[in-house]
Design goal:
Oligomer: homodimer
Helix content of chain A: 25-40%
CATH topology of the largest domain in chain A: Phosphoribosyl-aminoimidazole Synthetase, Chain A, domain 2
Largest interface: A-B, 74 and 74 residues
CATH superfamily of the largest domain in chain A: PurM-like C-terminal domain
Structural class of chain A: alpha+beta
CATH architecture of the largest domain in chain A: Alpha-Beta Complex
Number of strands of chain A: 13
CATH class of the largest domain in chain A: Alpha Beta
Order of helices and strands of chain A: HEEEHEHEEEHHHEHEHHEHEEE
Chain lengths: 331, 331
């Protein structure tokens, strides 16, 4: 069955069920010109939006639509996590080419709903339209956080400990495996990291509520680029120790087996959606403890310094400027 | 100059100026993982999103990019107007094909900024990415309204007066003129209606603050389809008198000159972005007066009735069911 058999409004009826996960504070959901909801007086609102374009961000032949649905919501939730917030209400726009069948769309929305359910996010509205070419998914997500807890890219201070909240490189290796046709059970964890990232909401909330970290960002463009954003916005530099960068055993095995450049994959590709931040040295242990007691992770990888360059200390002790190169859609 | 010469982050730097129109309540704008703002405690939040896709919603050779920028924000603002609200904070996603040059993008953003400025809306964030084909613009817009003033599609009661807040058909005629290559100064108003719709925020606010109207929607899909939405959501029917449908002199002249179907253009195409609502008969005069004293318009076009069909009384007195056919992207 094709979309044209049921029409735009038939499609909205079809996907409507299961979109309202949490009715607290929701005044009106899907079905009007806007959705309507209340925000608590004591919090600030967060707004983020991300567009996923077929052939640019994903290949329909490479990612199962259910995973694509989960991921499209996860990448937005990760932006909320990077501010220390809690995701709340989402609006989804989809432009659908004629070649896409209803089964694929059902799986796509089932994926979004499963992710929404996991994090108690409502899918409150959106827009559906035809596309002359690629499948396009845009999600706008509203979240909330207490104003005094918001974490910015711009708050890092010289001498801060730079930390990661999970391993990096796995998603990049997963993409590498897919693109090079090396998919097998052996690399299941890496492929999963690429297809099914987990937004670190609990980690972000723990860091925010501790009120000790100076800056936070999520690793979407790669550690080098994202730490570069913190450095630029905070007007300082950083030095990172390669041996401290957390990676998984499977990641290291993959790089070794195929002689892939582990430094490039772990620092310069991205899509790991772990958090990257800075915390004053005297508070690092306290933050690590709080994260550990919530089942979250903290890996010190370096420190912020005066200046503006981002440097990497290699395993052999040599230091080189690695700049801030990460993913740029237009270069 | 092309986008690839300045890169994604160079582009964000380029467009950043002029995006913050009103700094009241804004905690952080463009440049972090999310934008951050405060919402007043006494209002409800509204969220809407609309995606404009090249070849589906617009042709780059037919609409000047400045107008396209204005329109892409206007259609979202119109959704806020239809709820009785005030637009506040916008997040813009753009997927840009390699063929689009920086001059076009500058004009596109200048258009968005001019519309934002006119209505004191902030452009607080967004996402920019490459596109393998069409230019795609998605805007998510947050607005606000007092909870007791929100106007829904579902509130109409049998016996309500059905009203429009401006002429219809002009935008449809404008598109017809463009598609048929009939553009000339003679039809300037109609082409302008298609390219540069004005969201009726003041009209919507006036209706909402009067608290007498039972339902409201904006005319995006066409009077028949949009009144159909009110009827469906309110579980009733309506009868509209053709002779009462407000159109402009230029619209009538165009239809007469080219023997175009004025009924189709005025009722079944849409994109007029005027408001369509219902109000109890005893309050219609009071609402009309309030609108007039604010320089806004009120045209009674019919009434709601029991049942579920949407009927049209023609100029000759005959009545026919016109259903609810309007624009459906997938049919």
């Amino acid at each position: 069955m094709k979309l044209r058999d049921i029409g735009e409004f038939g499609f909205i009826e079809r996907i409507k069920d299961g979109c309202l996960i949490r009715d607290e504070n929701v005044i009106s959901g899907i079905g009007d010109d806007c959705c309507v909801f209340k925000t608590s007086a004591e919090v600030a609102s967060l707004l983020t939006t991300d567009m996923l374009v077929e052939q640019i961000h994903f290949l329909l032949e490479a990612i199962p639509p259910y995973q694509l649905g989960r991921k499209s919501l996860a990448v937005n939730m990760s932006d909320i996590a990077a501010m220390g917030g809690t995701p709340k209400e989402a609006a989804i726009s989809v432009a659908i080419p004629d070649t896409v069948n209803l089964g694929l769309l059902d799986a796509l929305y089932d994926g979004m709903k499963s992710m929404a359910h996991e994090f108690e996010v409502n899918l409150l509205g959106g827009d559906t339209t035809a596309s002359p070419g690629p499948l396009i998914i845009n999600i706008a997500l509203v979240g909330e956080v207490r104003e005094e807890e918001v974490l910015y890219r711009s708050g890092a201070k010289v001498g801060d400990v730079v930390f990661l909240t999970g391993p990096v490189g796995s998603a990049a290796a997963g993409l590498d495996i897919i693109l090079k046709g090396r998919g097998s059970d052996e690399w299941g964890e890496l492929i999963e990291a690429h297809h099914n990232p987990h937004p670190q909401i609990k980690t972000g909330r723990t860091i925010a509520s501790m009120k000790v970290a100076n800056s936070l960002i999520d690793v979407s463009d790669g550690v080098a680029a994202d730490l570069g954003h913190i450095c630029t916005e905070s007007r300082l530099g950083a030095i990172v120790e390669e041996k401290m960068i957390p990676t998984t055993e499977q990641f290291r095995a993959y790089c070794e087996k195929f002689q892939e450049d582990s430094r490039r994959l772990s620092l310069h590709v991205g899509e790991d959606y772990v958090l990257l931040g800075t915390v004053p040295a005297e508070s690092a242990a306290k933050l690590q403890e709080a994260l550990a007691s919530n089942g979250c992770h903290f890996h010190s990888i370096g420190k912020t310094v005066a200046g503006s360059s981002l440097r990497l200390e290699s395993r052999d002790g040599s230091v080189e400027v690695i700049g801030a190169s990460g993913w740029d859609h237009f270069r």
